[in-house]
Amino acid sequence: MTPSIHLFVLASGSKGNAAIVQGPEGSILIDDGISYKALRTRAQEVAAPLDDICAVLLTHEHGDHTSGLSVFCNHFDGPLFATAGTVAGRSYLQEMPFELIQDNDSLDLAGMHIRAFPTSHDVNDPVGFRFDVIDDEGEIQDSLGWCTDTGYVTDEALDALYGCRILGLESNHDEKMLETGPYSRYLKDRVKGEDGHLSNAQAAAVLPHLVTKDTECVVALHLSEENNRPSVCIRTLAEPLGAEPTNTTFTEARTPDGLLTVFPASQHKAVSVW
User: Fold this and answer.
1) Do 61 and 86 contact (CB within 8 A), yes or no?
2) Is 231 left (phi over 0), alpha (psi -120 to 50) or beta?
3) E strands within the chain?
4) What is the pLDDT of residues 82-96, one digit of tens each?
5) Which one of 91, 145, 191, 255 is most buried, counting C-beta atoms within 10 A?
6) Beta strand 26-32 with 18-23: parallel, antiparallel or unpaired?
7) In this prediction, what percent of the chain has a pLDDT beyond 70?
8) Does residue 172 contact residue 98 with C-beta atoms inside 8 Å?
9) Using CA atoms, how far apart are residues 159 and 201, in angstroms rounded to an integer?
10) Going by C-beta distance under 8 Å and a sequence separation of 6 or more, which residues neighbour residue 187?
């Protein structure tokens, strides 16, 4: 594929989420669960095109994905897109001029064809997204998949995420760390349930079905600070891909041919993928 989509993960985790997908004709903000000050600071750290954003997409209504949106919209007058269930899930979202989408809708924004797909979380109508740049002959030139906050990978997600050059996939917790960790029994069951969050093992199990010769980067999303570690996550995801560590801390892995890299997004530091 010819790289024409760039990803900037400004924050990923239970304390706040925000990412920018830059396309040929502008940029899209996925979720905004951090303050406007933090959003601008993180964007500056990785030279993300914050002032080039032409639309906002929401995956779901939880506060760690939406709490910064009201202030952001004081500085932004472009379109906002979310499912009806997402908008209904927070009173402050109901006050914003959202354009409602279904969980199987497609949009054309920023020079990209964007396809929504259903995920499985304890909210109404959560979605993930696939972004494609398509040439005049109808061929995909570049692609990015985004799937976070889901208890399992739905059939629609498996189809949408297949063969993306950049794959952002939740890898929230290590199952043993969750079970022996500080969470209450109720919260442990919620996290590992079908409407909860993907474990490292679940993410690793689907990677062979999603990664193709076109896939260059797998970004692990929404790592739990209590029930996961970057090294544990990347070690687990690397194994089915035949990737090997590139550093002593095992926070990045790469296949022996150098074509595929696996690394985690961070709650506290912005990362970029070109």
Assistant:
1) yes
2) alpha
3) 6-11, 18-23, 26-32, 53-57, 80-83, 98-101, 106-109, 112-118, 127-134, 140-147, 166-170, 217-221, 244-245, 253-254, 261-264, 271-273
4) 999 999 999 999 999
5) 145
6) antiparallel
7) 100
8) no
9) 20
10) none
pLDDT tens string 127-173: 999 999 999 999 999 999 999 999 999 999 999 999 999 999 999 99
Residue-range domain boundaries for the chain: 6-273
Band (13; pLDDT cuts 50, 70, 90)? very high
Asked if 161 and 169 touch (Cβ cutoff 8 Å), the reply is yes
9, 267 contact by CB (below 8 A): no
Ordered alpha helix ranges (H), 114-184: 155-161, 175-180
Give, in order, the Cα–Cα distances in Å from 244 to each of 23, 202, 218, 239: 30, 20, 14, 8
Q: For residue 226, give Cα distances in angstroms to 153, 174, 179.
A: 23, 10, 11
Whether the Cβ atoms of residue 243 and residue 19 lie closer than 8 Å to each other: no
Q: How far apart are CA 154 and CA 104, in angstroms?
A: 13
- Three-class SS of residue 130? strand
Thinking of the domain 6-273, which architecture would CATH place it in?
A: 4-Layer Sandwich (3.60)
Instruction: Tell me the per-residue pLDDT of 31-89, one tens digit each, with 9 for 90 and over.
Output: 999 999 999 999 999 999 999 999 999 999 999 999 999 999 999 999 999 999 999 99
Residue with token string 């995909």: 140
Q: How far apart are CA 146 and CA 59, in angstroms?
A: 9
